[in-house]
Specification:
about 350 residues, LLM class flavin-dependent oxidoreductase, 12 strands, disordered N terminus, two-stranded antiparallel sheet, TIM Barrel, single chain, alpha/beta
């Protein structure tokens, strides 16, 4: 199954590798099992013909992955054609040279399938861990992104900044198979972040976890306007959407199956952030309603939501996070199957892409 391109979208899945208790049994799988399941999910996605597999970065004991490049390298050997991306790399607290060289290495291992999705992250534990101050949150990201783009363009780099040592005719090795690594910026909801992604001429990945999709359209407009003003060609200004998803044969079945895991997920994520809020079934019904951005339902319902957003944003990529809240692996497998065999063909037909 080939990618939906041109006027359509590429479709894939991603994981943040959260390790949550099963809401029914209270048992939590081991980090080893979680890692094995992530690699197996990537193999299944590749075999099913999905286009992209993403792995996120966290530095907490309740998440399994702190180094996406290492995990994606293992996945590279277990797969043949699927693109491999971070979702996201916490660029504020990563050394850009190390990040670039790791993903250039991944590109060599995978035969040209590596990408970097850089963001600022939802948690701040990496700041004290790597000796940075949250007071420099925005400035760090800007400086590190500036350097990362220079590394991507040049084999030998001279550079001066505030937060790391200067580079003078530094050789940046190895170089990737691709002429340049595709680089995206993850944007949560601020106009400033959207404008920056546009000015830099990199892809913008929107994290849309709920609510009315219309509220994100201004960010897309800001991104494209800033990119065109900066002189970038429209075909470089790609928009991606990432979001939580769960599929079943019918929408009611999907909601019934997913609610315990989704409520469980937000329960422990909110606790991690110092909040004690719990999601009721009524709350869930509201966030999963047909006009919201939560991709829960039958394949037809999920296709309808993706197409509605495609009309608003003209995005070229959709990534679904299907393994949150302790969802057991057999349900993750079923979701990959439904996404690849039902959602993707319906999208192709609706968008008018030739097979």
């Amino acid at each position: 199954m080939s990618a939906i391109k041109q006027n359509g979208i590429e479709v894939g899945i991603y994981t943040l590798a959260d390790i949550g208790p099963d809401p029914f049994t209270g048992k939590t799988i081991s980090t080893k099992q979680r890692m094995d399941e992530i690699i197996e999910a990537a193999k299944l996605a590749d075999e099913a013909g999905l286009d992209i597999f993403g792995v996120g970065e966290h530095h907490r004991l309740d998440y399994a992955v702190s180094s996406p490049a290492v995990v994606l390298s293992a996945i590279a050997h277990a797969t043949k054609r699927i693109k491999l991306t971070s979702t996201t790399s916490v660029l504020s607290t990563l050394d850009p040279v190390r990040l670039y060289e790791d993903f250039a290495t991944l590109d060599l291992i995978s035969g040209g399938r590596a990408e970097i999705l850089a963001g600022r992250g939802a948690f701040i534990e990496s700041f004290p861990l790597f000796g940075y101050s949250t007071k420099d949150y925005n400035e760090l990201f800007s400086e590190h992104m500036d350097l990362l783009l220079k590394l991507n363009e040049n084999e030998i780099v001279s550079w001066n900044g505030k937060f790391r040592s200067s580079l003078r005719d530094a050789e940046i090795a190895p170089r990737p198979v691709q002429k340049q690594l595709p680089i995206w910026i993850g944007v949560g909801g601020t106009p400033e972040s959207a404008a920056r992604a546009g000015r830099l001429g990199v892809g913008m990945a929107l994290a849309i976890l709920g609510g009315d999709p219309m509220r994100f359209k201004p960010l897309v407009d800001i991104y494209r306007s800033a990119g065109l003003e900066a002189g970038h060609s429209p075909d470089k200004l790609n928009v991606g959407v990432t979001g939580h998803a769960y599929l079943a044969k019918t929408t009611e079945e999907a909601k019934d199956e997913f609610y315990p895991y989704y409520a469980n997920y937000w329960n422990y994520v909110n606790r991690q952030r110092g909040m004690g809020t719990k999601m009721s079934r009524d709350d869930f019904e509201q966030v999963a309603s047909p006009r919201t951005a939560l991709f829960v339902g039958s394949p037809e319902q999920v296709v309808e939501k993706i197409l509605h957003q495609h009309e608003l944003y003209g995005h070229t990529r959709f990534l679904a996070q299907i393994d949150i809240g302790g969802v057991p692996f057999h349900k993750v497998e079923k979701n990959i199957e439904l996404l690849a065999t039902e959602v993707v063909p319906m999208l192709k037909k609706a968008i008018g892409q030739n097979k």
